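Annex B. Sample input.
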Amino acid sequence: MTARMLRPCILAALAASATFASCKSGDAGAGATVRPPKILSIAIWEPETIDPGLAGEESGITIASALFEGLVRRPAGEGPARPGVASSWEPSADGLTWTFHLRPDARWSDGGPVTARDFDFAWRRVLDPASGSRLVAQLYVVDGAEEVHAGRAASDRLGVKVVDAATLEVRLRVPTVDFPGRLAHPVFAPVRADVVARHGAQWTRPGNLVGNGPFRLDEFQPGDKAVVSRNPAWRAAAAVALDGVTFHFLSGERLAYEWFAAGKVQWLKSTLSRDRIPEMRRTRPAEFHTDPVLCTGYVALRIDKPPLDDERVRRALALSVDKERLVREVLMGGQAPARSFVPPGISTPTGYVPPAGAGFDPVRARALLASARRAHGTLAPLSYVYNSGEANKVIAEFLQAQWKDNLGIDVSLEGTEWKSLLARVRRGDYRMARASWCADVVDPLNFLEILRTGAASNYPAFADPEVDRRLEAARVEGDGEARNALLRQAEERMLDAAPMVPLFHFTRIYLLSPRVRGFQPNLLDVHPLEDLDLAD
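Annex B, continued. Sample output.
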């Protein structure tokens, strides 16, 4: 079925409501076979933004990846990058300069051509400090990017050159392993300058947004859902099996189970709460899945606020949590206790072996806390903020009990909605907060650089010149073994300073209907929607 044949059906399905009408496969004339459109429904937390350059959490990245296409595409599963807007590319002999050749049939959803200037504008927009992009450090592989972002260099210092409308040249700081693969992340996606100029902060709203991905935005109802449909202007629209995707925004895990059981959603993308895991294993064996992914859950400690400005207090909080018990008795989903920030699962593809880190040691924790009290007297009260949800609530209560039983301190708990938590940790309005980091690329530096001084996702406000120095040295180190040694030294120093309490390394626990086809588990938990299908 061609994109031209499908388009009238999709438009009719979207008219007046989110209920998709039936449409015909093949010619619309007499005798044509009728089938309902294939609409994948996903339960997901409401994104803070779907702006590809600014999205920094899973939900926003998922939707932005459907609406925008970069120079390359993520593979379904693991493997090298696939051509996207760029049909081909080649590096220079020294690996520092990459030339990307844009395909002539790359189009925006309004039919306009995608050009090299759209990438140049988008990347410079992310590097503008006023953008507030959380993932701006992803662009630091480009020569001059960090200096431009920090205001230490003029914009013409950036190693990006528009050779012509169909050719983009990128100069790197140092040769970078799998540089093309990194460009699949939506932070590198193109953005139309005229659309942003016309609509300002509202440019990502339905009716305003002009994307170049396999889907286009039809609805975005805050607190409810987002609806996308196949983009007929996308260069490979005829190869996309899904007619559309509906993202239902979660308000809690219990409602999500009801949606899945009723068939309202085919993919419960959020991690399941621990009290449902045994039931799901038993009653839905064909739909229950648990896959290893490169993610770490941790407690962010705001180190510029007392009593967390004392390293002894932070280390005591870390040593007093029995993480083995947390994963065994509370989470129960195959997670691994975290002694390091970087997950051990990264070792096979990269050779990086994280440091062992400190284990559960309540005796040492009490001694450290007592030492801090002798120095400061009465310590300031502590609170822990987390985004509401059954799983996060149970973890918060476990932590509260651990700190009470093992340290004798009372920690107050505060549940809040997801977007509120993000806003609070970004402005430093907390003492202890639930946090997590999932890799954007298979590289230990992707984890460790979030605690570099001034990094956008450095929620604890951690600053250590020696850590910064080692991270920078690793960034330019070409020898893999030497690079890993530098990264390990940086992580060891971070763990000693304890700006966070690593809790557990994730497994992705989810429910997926057997009707969903083309789904391939992988370490980055990336599942391009244009590669999925729904069985009839």
